[in-house]
Amino acid sequence: MAKTGKKIGNGLLIILALIIIFIVIYLNSLLPIITGYAAKNLCSAVFVSDRKPENVESVDLNFSFIKFTKNSVNYDEKSVTSHFLWGKSKAIYRNGFGVTLLRDITEEKLGRLKYPGGADPGYSQDTIKWPLGDILPKRNTGIDTIKLAEISKKLITENAYNGNAFAFMVIHKGVPVAEQYKPQFNQKTRLLSWSMAKSFVNAMVGILVKQGKLDIYKPTGLVEWKDDDRNKITLNDLMQMQSGLKWNEDYGNRSDVTLMLHCKSDMGHFAFERPAAYPAGTHWYYSSGTTNIVSYMIRKQFNNDSTYYVFANNQLFNKIGMPDALFEVDPTGTRVGSSYLYATARDYARFGLLFENDGVFNGERILPEGWVKYTTSAASASEGLYGSFFWLNRSRKIPSAPEDMFACDGHDGQHIYILPSQQLIVVILGYSPTSRGGMDIDRLLRDILGTLH
Predict the structure, then answer these.
(1) Last residue of a domain, one of 84, 112, 140
(2) Are 388 and 304 members of one domain?
(3) Contact by Cβ (8 Å): 425, 352
(4) Global confidence as pTM
């Protein structure tokens, strides 16, 4: 009997030991994600957005395991190091490139790469009129500005729409009619796009199409896909999220997207290594990986990195009045098209104007004719939810908004809503995670639409 009891006890100890080993192994696999998320986002918030570390930690990083990280900000070298248990990650800010998480590259090698010159816009926004500049027009557009001011106050100072908005802006008939910020933010604060960056990748592809450098309906030509069914995937399939590549977009655990953003040095390469799960063009599902494949392909259109980096500045940002926008890169130098653009509320509003005006900004055609129509045409398997790196309202997912509304949406509550039939653009930036209910966008848009005469 004693021997039996001893065997059972030993068996339980072995099981307990195996459980502990499994937990340690799994936790070890999460540590680069936990510390990487904290280091990267805090570093960008401090050195790109000019925010106070304690504010970022109490708001943006106050969830899950992330809130337990110990973060050290080095203002001399412009870096952040984050620790959790035995894990550690470091992120570094560089002029022009923004913040990069150190993954498979030394700090010294990363520091040797300098952003090229030649991206100066040739104007000062403080001295020229909207939309290119910041001298705002005083024109009555027919919207009820008193009611709109009340909505702004409710949203920003009272968090009345179940969210936490840092910045809010409304454009009507091309004119800013509402603009408000929480106290620690202002019109110069560059804020994180998260997945709104995907829509900017759409614009970059459009410009290259206009220049005759890309054909979205041809197979990508990636050599890594030449010997299997992935060789049928087109740029259009990628942009409409119908590539068929296997992908897990779950931000709540160890998934493809969290591995890509926090553990990989070459995000585009990681994404195009995914196997095919469906035939191209037949199945819709959201994938940040496809955008980083497209971003990788954009880089391949240039003979050298100097022309690649200034392309976005000279052909897009400077032309639409957002010269201070910053599109961060992965450790290999490719822009993180899925997630990491930093720009002001006014910048995001200007981008909305570009698409509301059919790709024309300040009298200059930036995107090819028909590009916005293509962008807002529903992906065949998306049930009217998605176009080309833009969300659609064809299925009236947001009931109070018109069917022709299309949008740039980002993680944790970043939005640009474009309502062509109402000549209206709404920009909301902040921290309103869906895990806490998210912002009541339908009610907010309903209230804003109620201010139109």
Answers:
(1) 112
(2) yes
(3) yes
(4) 0.94
